């Protein structure tokens, strides 16, 4: 009759089994949630705010350079949708955009960066729930609220998508707080107050970034601007003031890819006193 071999049940054996089980669970959880850490980390971690998610030439995320929208392997299957938020009616509705081409595309692109522009009309204040702030200091400031959604087409390769949205206020400032003017600009505002923007939830990096995932309800976004921007004196500088928004997204450990950007600009109208006509500065 064969003897049954006894199983070693020493404390050392149990310790080895526990460590193996713990290591397996840890690795599994890490692989199941790789992108969530990417999205939230680039918003909630202070050091990540110094990473320029728009830089497709030098910034490396998850061992890859950031991919410009023009080189996206999924084409236009991932885009930002913009809805105006009517706070009075507590509803949103889509906004039409104007498509433009900008020659400032990053290296590796086709030389042109497609850009959607949303012109903010002063007369649309009620329709977009823009209001004049109640306190005396902000009596000449308008507030516009929007809902930004990431539209993702159904695809097996886009099933585990997470994203961040990044807002940049224009004109950009240098290290001394002075405006960095666009080439050909006639802006002579001399530090005059411009536009301001912020995400309202899941935000970080001075509220200029927020994160989400495929299929969520989107991100609420607020823009504030002084009514003086709509002055006739600024008609030639309608392309100077603005807020540029782009989304950076990824699935798993693949390279982070950018969407085409959307720029919010005030629609400044030039009144031609000589011909008694009104012309847009678009």
Could you give the topology of this structure?
Layout: H1 11-32, H2 34-44, E1 60-61, E2 64-65, E3 78-86, E4 91-94, E5 98-102, E6 113-120, E7 131-132, E8 141-152, E9 161-170, E10 172-173, E11 179-180, E12 196-199, E13 203-204, E14 209-213, E15 219-226, E16 242-251, E17 257-258, E18 261-266, E19 269-272, E20 277-280
Parallel strand pairs: 6-18
Antiparallel strand pairs: 1-2, 3-4, 3-8, 5-6, 7-8, 8-15, 9-14, 9-16, 10-11, 12-15, 13-14, 16-17, 16-18, 19-20
Q: Tell me the helix content.
A: 10-25%
Return the structural class.
Answer: mainly beta
The separation of the N and C termini measures: 97 Å
How many β strands by DSSP? 20
Strand content: 35-45%
> How are helices and strands ordered from N to C?
HHEEEEEEEEEEEEEEEEEEEE
Task: Please summarize the sheet with the most strands.
Answer: 8 strands, mixed
Number of helices: 2
Poorly predicted tracts of residues: 29-36, 103-111, 126-136, 182-191, 274-282
Mean pLDDT: 75
| Outline type | elongated
Radius of gyration: 25 Å
Description:
With 282 residues, the chain is mainly beta. Helix content is 12%, strand content 37%. It is built from 2 helices and 20 strands. The protein has helices spanning 11-32, 34-44; strands at 60-61, 64-65, 78-86, 91-94, 98-102, 113-120, 131-132, 141-152, 161-170, 172-173, 179-180, 196-199, 203-204, 209-213, 219-226, 242-251, 257-258, 261-266, 269-272, 277-280. It starts with 10 loop residues before the first helix and ends with a strand.
């Amino acid at each position: 009759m064969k003897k049954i071999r006894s199983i070693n049940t020493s404390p050392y054996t149990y310790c080895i089994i526990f460590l193996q089980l713990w290591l397996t669970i840890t690795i599994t959880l890490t692989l199941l949630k790789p992108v969530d850490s990417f999205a939230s980390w680039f918003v909630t971690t202070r050091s990540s705010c110094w990473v320029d998610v728009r830089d497709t030439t030098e910034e490396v995320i998850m061992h890859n350079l950031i991919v410009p929208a023009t080189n996206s392997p999924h084409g236009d299957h991932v885009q930002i949708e913009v809805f105006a938020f009517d706070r009075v009616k507590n509803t949103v509705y889509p906004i039409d955009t104007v498509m433009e081409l900008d020659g400032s595309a990053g290296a590796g692109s086709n030389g042109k960066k497609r850009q959607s522009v949303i012109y903010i009309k002063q007369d649309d204040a009620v329709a977009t729930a823009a209001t004049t702030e109640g306190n005396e200091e902000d009596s000449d400031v308008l507030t516009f609220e929007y809902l930004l959604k990431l539209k993702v087409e159904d695809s097996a390769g886009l099933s585990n998508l997470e994203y961040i949205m990044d807002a940049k206020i224009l004109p950009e400032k240098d290290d001394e707080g002075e405006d960095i003017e666009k080439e050909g600009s006639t802006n002579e505002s001399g530090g005059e107050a411009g536009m301001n923007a912020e995400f309202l939830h899941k935000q970080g990096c001075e509220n200029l970034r927020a994160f989400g995932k495929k299929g969520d309800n989107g991100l609420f976004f607020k823009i504030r601007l002084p009514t003086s921007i709509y002055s006739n004196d600024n008609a030639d500088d309608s392309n100077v003031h603005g807020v540029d928004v782009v989304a950076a997204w990824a699935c798993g450990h693949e390279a982070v890819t950018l969407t085409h950007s959307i720029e919010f600009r005030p629609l400044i109208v030039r009144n031609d006193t000589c011909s008694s006509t009104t012309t847009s500065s678009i």
